[in-house]
Design brief:
heterodimer, A: 225 residues, alpha/beta, Rossmann fold, 6-stranded mixed sheet, 4-stranded antiparallel sheet, 26% strand, B: 289 residues, alpha+beta, Alpha-Beta Plaits, 2 domains, 10 helices, elongated
Chain lengths: 225, 289
């Protein structure tokens, strides 16, 4: 379970990215965070992975207070709360397979076990036949699939995605969201930050709307309006 | 991990070459100073254990047992004598013949009748040599006294100077090697900034990120050490005939293989330590969150 309790995030220049934001997300939920640029979506994603620390309030993941977490525990948190990025953040000198295996490598998985898991995950995201391709040889949608495969290969409990369809055409974006839904159905909590209203409407999942760092709506499995 | 490090080394051949060359120079200087120090200490030991004062008597005349016992007693009375040896004219002849066995002309010209008997003495401490020399000079029949105090004192001073100079030069070069490795690994870290950022985002620990860089530093150190050892060994083998001629009776050469292997072990350890230390400083400096 993820709990945000009166979370405020101020930046050094004095501006507030989030102001007294509170919500709770149960295990296995699929949640969209929507809102215009500067609404605070990315800040929430970063706070969840301790890339940022809340100025005020409490963030709990599975009863662990992120503010009290020691620096050496942060890598473990980031393996449990995996992330997909708008710009994919892939290594272009490594193959698809090597990029995906990186998550297992940092988790200390041995080569034999990693090879099998990478193969299975690439099949799952539809890139089984492109495991030896380099990122430069792939389309935008495929690059995002590699990013997703890398995020889920180590079996995280939470998957967060920050504008995962921002650089994709509508068809590719739709396919990526369908993939997120499949991952969610296998038990992973999925949080997606987006400003793509059309997709959010089609999915009819829980939607948390943000504006200027505040929650304006929290619709349970509803329609984004 | 090794594969990753190897790829990293291959991608930066000139940086690697600079690091290895610097390490080689540092370790080579350490090896040369180690060899000079070890050799000097052995030479000093040779002189310390060799007779330090030799009194020669009239040629062809041996001392009686009573005379020898009398001189020995006087020397022992000082409490400063370490070893005492009487060399008769016959023994002197045997020594002479052994030393000149390859020169028949010299062997023919000399026999025990023209060689002097002698008494060889070593002191427990170098500073007491002069006193022993004076006592020996006062003995009846002594014609000449040869005495090594200056040689040993000069040698001891020389070893001390070599050690001081070696310490200074080695410290300077070690610092230079650490700095070169620091800069080179710093450059490698800078060129991999994006990859490091991605690794952090997917949950890599600091240690996981540091390991390839530390390993690279260690490999530079090991390669440099091995090359330095090889060069020092070749130089030593090449100069052995000349040195053996110069050292004459001093039993210093050839340098035993076990000594060279021990030197290799020490150099590899030192090289790896310098490389890892440089890598640690670099990763600490450039991999801060």
């Amino acid at each position: 379970m993820i709990v945000f309790k009166s979370v405020t995030k101020n930046f050094p220049d004095g501006s507030a990215a989030l102001e007294k934001v509170s919500f709770q997300i149960n295990d296995g939920e699929f949640v969209f965070f929507i809102g215009p640029s500067g609404a605070g979506k990315t800040t929430i994603m970063k706070l969840l992975r301790r890339e940022l620390v809340a100025s005020e309030g409490t963030i709990m993941i599975k009863n662990t207070n992120l503010a009290e977490m020691a620096a050496r525990e942060i890598p473990l948190l980031r393996r449990q709360v995996a992330m997909c990025f708008q710009d994919f953040k892939l290594l272009y000198d490594k193959t698809v397979e090597e990029n995906v295996a990186l998550s297992l490598e940092v988790a200390g998985e041995n080569d034999a076990g990693a090879e099998k898991k990478v193969k299975e995950t690439l099949e799952k995201v539809g890139l089984g036949k492109k495991s030896n391709f380099f990122p430069i040889q792939l389309s935008g949608g495929e690059l995002q699939r590699v990013g997703i495969a890398r995020a889920i290969v180590a079996n995280p409990s939470i998957l967060v995605a920050d504008e995962p369809t921002g650089n994709l055409d509508p068809d590719a974006a739709w396919e990526i969201l369908k993939l997120f839904k499949e991952i969610n159905l296998s038990g992973t909590t999925v949080l997606v930050a987006t400003h793509n209203a059309e997709i959010v409407n089609k999915f009819k999942e829980r939607v948390i709307s943000l504006k200027k760092g505040k929650i304006t709506k929290d619709e349970k499995k509803g329609k984004y309006a | 991990m090794l594969k990753k490090t190897w790829i990293q080394l291959r991608r930066t051949p000139y940086q690697g070459l600079a690091a290895v060359m610097t390490m080689t120079l540092t370790i080579l200087v350490i090896a040369v100073f180690s060899l000079i120090s070890a050799g000097s200490i052995k030479i000093l030991k040779y002189f310390e254990t060799a007779p330090q004062v030799i009194a020669f008597f009239k040629p062809g005349e041996d001392l009686t047992d009573i005379q020898i016992a009398n001189i020995r007693a006087q020397m022992e009375k000082t409490g400063k004598m370490n070893q005492f040896r009487y060399v008769s004219t016959r023994e002197a002849e045997a020594i002479y013949k052994e030393k000149n066995k390859d020169n028949p002309l010299l062997l023919e010209l000399v026999d025990y009748k023209i060689l002097p008997a002698s008494i060889e003495i070593s002191a427990t401490e170098l500073k007491d040599l002069l006193e022993l020399k004076i006592v020996l000079q006062g003995q009846e029949g002594v014609e000449e006294v040869v005495y090594y105090e200056d040689v040993i004192a000069n040698l001891a001073n020389w070893i001390s100077s070599v050690k001081k100079m070696g310490f200074g030069v080695i410290s300077y070069l070690t610092l230079e090697s650490v700095l070169v490795i620091l800069v080179i690994i710093g450059m490698q870290i800078a060129s991999k900034r994006e990859e490091i950022e991605i690794l952090r985002l997917i949950g890599a620990t600091s240690w996981f990120i540091r390991k390839p860089f530390l390993l690279a530093g260690m490999i530079y150190g090991l390669i440099g050490s091995f090359l330095a050892w090889g060069i020092s060994y070749i130089l030593l083998l090449y100069s052995t005939p000349f040195l053996a001629n110069w050292l004459q009776d001093i039993p210093l050469l050839p340098v035993p293989v076990w000594f060279m292997l021990a030197l290799l072990g020490m150099e590899l350890f030192l090289g790896a330590a310098i490389g890892i230390f440089g890598g640690l400083v670099a990763t600490h400096r450039f991999l801060k969150e």
